């Protein structure tokens, strides 16, 4: 594995990496950083946790023109949480680059803060497709001088219904921009997007390592849907435990399961948010 210095990153960026304790690049960073520094488009198949944020953030920061006020880099993320996470990473890696301005743009936040920052000038915009489209429709976001565009977790964006917005944004940005597309999977729709909007991209595939802590025992039981509650009840009867978390697919099923478990006398409390639900 090469060192960060051997990847061609400027000294100020390398200094930040030493500050935060990065010693050697991950596989996705080693494969992605050199072509992005050279201006090549990249398609990366990589899971969360492989270091892909640094893989695209470091080359972008290395090539920014800090004298330019209009946004030079746009990162599209499927959720507000990921957009904020990516924004924080950019700010961390830019710690020794004076004057770099990064702006998160997402729904649920007032337009005032975003509009004020855009008027003052930002170098990197990290946002969700819906809010980026809102700014483009209002004429408050200027992407005419965009040099870098990143699609982070592209498969999730398409699953969430952002396909049309993503294509509109890609089509309305300069044709000579540098594009990096990262996705955990490569379905036909992502492949088509890559062929249409990326120029002879370097393709990178990195498999994340999956491991379990030594003190965790994993077991599974295959049952039909009508037998699930009976099976879970039986497990609760025979296992010794102080507390348990049960992950459930939908909000409605959380309430249903919690109610059924109350019948045998098992104390439960349901917690649900959107489609992520837990029975405790």
Can you walk me through this structure?
The protein has 2 domains: 5-206, P-loop containing nucleotide triphosphate hydrolases (Rossmann fold, 3-Layer(aba) Sandwich), CATH 3.40.50; 225-279, no CATH class. The chain is built from 11 helices and 10 strands. The chain has helices at 11-19, 27-37, 52-63, 80-93, 111-120, 129-138, 154-159, 163-171, 188-197, 228-238, 251-262, and strands at residues 42-46, 73-76, 102-105, 124-127, 148-151, 178-183, 202-206, 246-248, 270-273, 276-279. A 7-stranded parallel beta sheet has the order 3-4-2-5-6-1-7, with helices on both faces. Helix 2 (27-37) packs parallel to helix 3 (52-63). The protein starts with 10 loop residues before the first helix and ends with a strand. The relative contact order is 0.13.
- Beta-strand share of residues: 15-25%
According to DSSP, the number of beta strands is 10
Strand adjacency order, main sheet: 3-4-2-5-6-1-7
Name the shape in a single word.
Answer: globular
Oligomer: single chain
Q: Helical content, roughly?
A: 40-55%
Cα-based radius of gyration, to the nearest Å:
23 Å
**What would you say the CATH architecture of the largest domain is?**
3-Layer(aba) Sandwich
Q: Calculate the mean pLDDT score and round it.
A: 88
Tell me the structural class.
alpha/beta
The CATH homologous superfamily of the largest domain is called: P-loop containing nucleotide triphosphate hydrolases
């Amino acid at each position: 594995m090469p060192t960060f210095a051997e990847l061609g990153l400027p000294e100020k960026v390398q200094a930040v990496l030493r500050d935060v304790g990065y010693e050697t690049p991950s596989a996705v960073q080693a494969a992605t950083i050199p072509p992005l520094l050279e201006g090549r488009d990249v398609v990366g198949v990589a899971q969360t946790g492989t270091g892909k944020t640094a893989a695209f953030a470091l080359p972008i920061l290395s090539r920014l023109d800090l004298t330019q006020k209009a946004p030079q880099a746009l990162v599209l993320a499927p959720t507000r949480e990921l957009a904020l996470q990516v924004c924080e990473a950019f700010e961390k890696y830019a710690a020794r680059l004076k004057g770099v301005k990064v702006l998160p743009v997402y729904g649920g936040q007032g337009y005032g803060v975003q509009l004020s920052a855009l008027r003052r000038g930002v170098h990197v915009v990290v946002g969700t497709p819906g809010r980026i489209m809102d700014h483009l429709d209002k004429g408050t976001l200027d992407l005419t001088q965009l040099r870098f565009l990143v699609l982070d977790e592209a498969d999730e964006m398409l699953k969430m219904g952002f396909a049309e917005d993503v294509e509109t944004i890609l089509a309305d940005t300069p044709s000579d921009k540098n594009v990096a597309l990262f996705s955990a999977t490569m379905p036909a729709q992502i492949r088509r997007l890559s062929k249409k909007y990326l120029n002879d991209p370097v393709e990178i595939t990195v498999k994340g390592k999956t491991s379990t802590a030594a003190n965790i025992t994993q077991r599974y039981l295959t049952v039909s849907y009508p037998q699930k509650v009976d099976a879970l009840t039986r497990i609760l009867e025979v296992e010794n435990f102080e507390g348990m978390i049960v992950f459930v697919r939908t909000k409605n099923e959380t309430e249903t399961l919690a109610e059924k478990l109350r019948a045998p006398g098992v104390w439960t409390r349901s917690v649900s948010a959107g489609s992520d639900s837990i029975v405790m």
